Structure formats: C-alpha cells, structure tokens
Amino acid sequence: MSRRAFAWAALSTLATAQGAAAAPGRPDPGRSRRRAATEMRGVWLATVANRDWPSRAGLTPAEQRAELIAHLDHAARDRLNTVILQVRPTADALWASPYEPWTEYLTGTQGQDPGWDPLGTAVREAHARGLELHAWFNPYRIANHADPARLADGHPARRHPDWVVPYGGKLYYNPGLPEVRAFVRRAMLDAVARYPVDAVHFDDYFYPYPVAGQTFDDDAAYDRYGGDFSGRAAWRRDNIDQLVKEMAAGIQQVRPGTRFGISPFGVWRNATTDSRGSDTRAGVQTYDDLHADTRTWVRNHWIDYIVPQLYWHIGFAAADYATLVAWWAQVAEGTKTHLYIGEALYRAGAQGQPSAWRDPVELSRHLTLAATRPQVRGHVFFAAKDVAADPIGAMARVVADHYGQPAKPPR
C-alpha cells in the first residue's frame, strides 16, 4: 500500500493538524554517508491505471519494453537494489496466466495478448543489472469500476458472480469465501512457479478502505463461516491471516527460498484504541478497518519482511514519522521479520503538500533518523515515476547523502 493516487483516500481521514517539524540535523554535505553493506533500497513500479508504467496503454511492445528498461536503468544508476513490480493490479496479469486475463494497462483491452513477456523480461533485465525483482500482487481487487460487464469474457469474476462484492464504486473478491482465497492464491503462485522472482509482495489492500455510508456486504459468507468467532471483525481478520499464512507456505512449496513481504498502511492501531498501538491519531487503523493484523504477522514471522507506509513528515501531529519509526522498530525487535520503511517520494514537491514536503532534504532526514534504529534495514520509495522525475531533487539528495556506495538487499 493511500500512498498512491489510486490508494490513499485514507490519508484524508487523518487529523489535519500539523506539528512543528523536529528534524534531526542534515547529513554533512561534504561527504556521502556510507550505509550498511546490506540494506533494502527499493522502489515500487506501479502499473495500475498506468501510474508508473507503461506510461499509457496501447504502446507497442518495443515502446513498453524501452520504458521498462529505462526504469530499471534509473534504479541501478541511483544505486537502488530492488524493484517491486506490480504484476497483478486488478485480478489480471502481466504474464500469460491460465487463471486470469492479461491486464488492460498494457494494451488498453483486458485479455488482449500484448505480444511479449513483460514479467519474464522484467525479471531477466533486473537481474542483469544486479537488481532484485519482487512481484507485487493485489489479492482481492477486481476492478476500479463497478460494472462486471466491462470485465473480459471468461473473467473469473464473471463466471463466479457470487465471489464478487461491489463496494465504493469498485469490485472486490470476497475474502470470507474459502474458494476465493484458494483461487487468488493459485493465481498468484502461478507467476512464482513460472518466473524466478526474488520475492512476493502485497500492498495495503486486504478488506477495502472504509467508504462513508457504505457496507461491505459479506453477510452470507459470515452467516456460513463466522460462527466460531467473537464477531465479524475477528472473522475478517482470521480470513486475512489465513491468506497470509497459506500464501507463505505456498511460496516455499513452489519456489523455496523466495521471500514474502507486505507493505501495509503505516498505523496498526492508535494507542487510544490499544495500549500496544502507536502514539498517533490516524483515521484508519489496519487492524480495525482493513482487518489486517500486521503486528501479529511480524511478531509471529509469518512474513519475511514488512514495509509500513510511513508517508508523513517528521513532526506531523496525527502520525509523526519519527514516532512511527520507533514504534515499528519496537515491533520488529527480536523477530526474524525484516523491517523496511515505505517512503513517500511522490509527496516531495507535490502541489498542496505541507511545507515539509517542499524541502528537498525531508526524505534524507528520514533516512538519517531511521538509521538510529538498528531494526530498520532499509527503505522503499513510492514510486518509480517520481524517482525518474525527482522534481525538487529529493531523491538525488537521498542518493548523495546515503547511497554513496552500492549495497545488497538483506536476505
């Protein structure tokens, strides 16, 4: 996971009060900060709605490939080491899947063969540049519209309308149905079986972000499967827990050694809700609203890494970056789950952002602060288009201050 034009409606529900920035001192400008020999230096490469790549649907295969290579080259030049490519944005595929149609974001028509192998090319070309390629899947989102008739002929959601829940003007698979969970797991693992991806990656979408005045209609599934739980929320959390555990096991069965990471919304629970939570006033809490118990996943080592999306500046009153780095470091301490921090590069210099994001040094300060916490083993930047454009030089400053030498991703 939101961080994205297509994801973070949840941010608007945060308290709008701004705290005074309390940034640590900027790094010595006379030298490059040498970081650990192994740390995550990642970038998300989003395909949904053509956010990062391809720049638009309908480009020729050669044009699509050239744009993809340019993103990989840019990541390598910035001494990043990992590209997280969105390969299943909306119950579709960037490979020749036997389960789901080709994504519309390649050709403009869902189900149309683009005439080349995007995922295979991405893995091969990333590895040729010393980059890891993590395959990013969205488990339950079917479409960013609410019309099943617009889906490709033969789409699983059209064959199984009972699997589908319309909500907030979009279509979702129902996580409460065991047959849905089994299907989406098979569909995602097909890519892992076919390609030597270095990791499987989920973002922040499990149950959808709340939409005011609307109800996610899973009554029938709850009536059928929820009897052993204390309430609907506990049942929903168990549904997501089961997906996470079953996906982890499936990955190791299909391609042993492949890692599994998740990037959730940055607030598990506020401390006012749960004493174990963070000192924040977030309007969305993953445990309660998305039914994703991210803290448990880390503490029980159900996943290999977690990348909480800490898309706020240092000193933001409702969700202070510094406060949340400290909280997540405490959660990860003593576990085998690696902690990386999701960084909002897309906000740097963007119109309408708080003044902190107009300072090209803000993101570099994030890395300086996080380096004081040994549990933080790297950062991932949203997103590739912003790495390339870098309108105020925020990414260039990160590279100059922190990425003076190459680093391998943690294993």
TrEMBL record:
Record keywords, A-Z: Lipoprotein, Signal
Residue span, Glycosyl hydrolase-like domain: 39-350
Pfam families recorded: GHL10 (PF02638)
Signal peptide extent: 1-22
Keyword Lipoprotein: yes
Membrane-spanning ranges: none
Protein name (database record): Uncharacterized lipoprotein YddW (UPF0748 family)
Organism field: Streptomyces griseochromogenes
Native organism taxonomy: Bacteria, Bacillati, Actinomycetota, Actinomycetes, Kitasatosporales
